[in-house]
Amino acid sequence: MTEKNDHPDFSLIIASAVHDMKNSLGMLLHSVDTMCDGLSDDVKQSLSTSTVKYEAERVNAYLIQLLGLYRLQNKKLMLHIDEYFLSDLLDEHRAQYQDMLDSKHVTLTTDCDPALSWYFDREIILGVVNNALNNASRYTKNKIELCARVEDKFLVIEVHDDGDGYPEAMLKLDPEAINNNINFRTGSTSLGLYFASRVTKLHVQDKLEGHIKISNGGKLGGGVFSVYLP
Predict the structure, then answer these.
(1) Rounded CA gap, 58 and 189, in Å?
(2) Which residue, 188, 186, 111, is CA-closest to 143?
(3) pLDDT tier, 117 (very low <50, low <70, confident <90, very high otherwise)
(4) How far apart are CA 38 and CA 50, in angstroms?
(5) Angle at which helices 122-139 and 191-200 pack, to 10 degrees?
(6) Rounded to two decimals, what is the model's pTM?
(7) Were both Cys, which of 51, 61, 74, 230 would link to 205 (CB 3.0–4.6 Å)?
């Protein structure tokens, strides 16, 4: 006779909690946006609404990544591939981050052929680029550029900043060796890189596989986060 297992599946419980928190945070962000619509720029600045939005977006990004990784591990993360114009995607990001970056006196520009389109999972790639933008906004001095182009059968989406660039140790990390990359002393988990690496690899075309790359230099002399999609 088989003994009944009454122990709960804590991974499922955590995933459910993350899902609920993500929904609540989404409602909070919507409420902040609604509240800010009728306020002047001076009032927004005095209330530090941009800081609230920035931190809430960071937490929301972490929750999306955790939920995505849970679904990936349990083979429940399905791609929804469709065609999108990159200029629209970049403009959407610029509009989303405009107020927060304005409060930090950071200029966000875009560089993309208006006719450029590609097939990919919009929500997944939005999450990856959002995380890169959040990081760039923390370390930039006053300039960020979002750009997209085609290179050797890959769509390349990049986030450039004019900060000090990625540390040498980080450039040598294997983004998928997350157990070796966690540093509780610095607070670095590399979760964003791990998530980006795993989900971009789901994009496959003609034996070409999506991937990410971090480097220094680029258009603005700082850090460069690149997404390659076949």
Answers:
(1) 14
(2) 111
(3) very high
(4) 15
(5) 150
(6) 0.77
(7) 230
Q: Which residue matches tokens 């294997």?
A: 174
For residue 96, give Cα distances in angstroms to 52, 63, 134, 197, 201.
14, 18, 11, 24, 26
Reported as a single tens digit per residue, the pLDDT across 134-169 is: 889 889 999 999 999 999 999 999 999 999 999 888
Looking up tokens 């919507």 gives 30
Alpha carbons within 13 A on the beta-carbon side of 83 = 3
For residue 64, the enclosing domain spans 1-78
**Would you say residue 192 has pLDDT above 70?**
yes
Residue 24 backbone dihedrals phi, psi, to 5 degrees: -65, -40
Q: Which two tokens stand for residue 176?
A: 């998928």
Residues β-bridged to residue 223: 216
Instruction: Look at residues 164, 109, 110 and name the one whose alpha carbon lies nearest to residue 135.
Output: 164
Please tell me whether residues 59 and 97 are part of one structural domain. no
State the distance between the two ends of the chain, measured CA to CA, in whole angstroms.
Answer: 52
CB contact at 8 A, 214 and 131: no
Name the H helices within 38-155.
Answer: 41-46, 49-73, 86-103, 122-139
Amino acid sitting at position 229: L
In this structure, the answer to whether residues 69 and 128 fall within a common structural domain is no
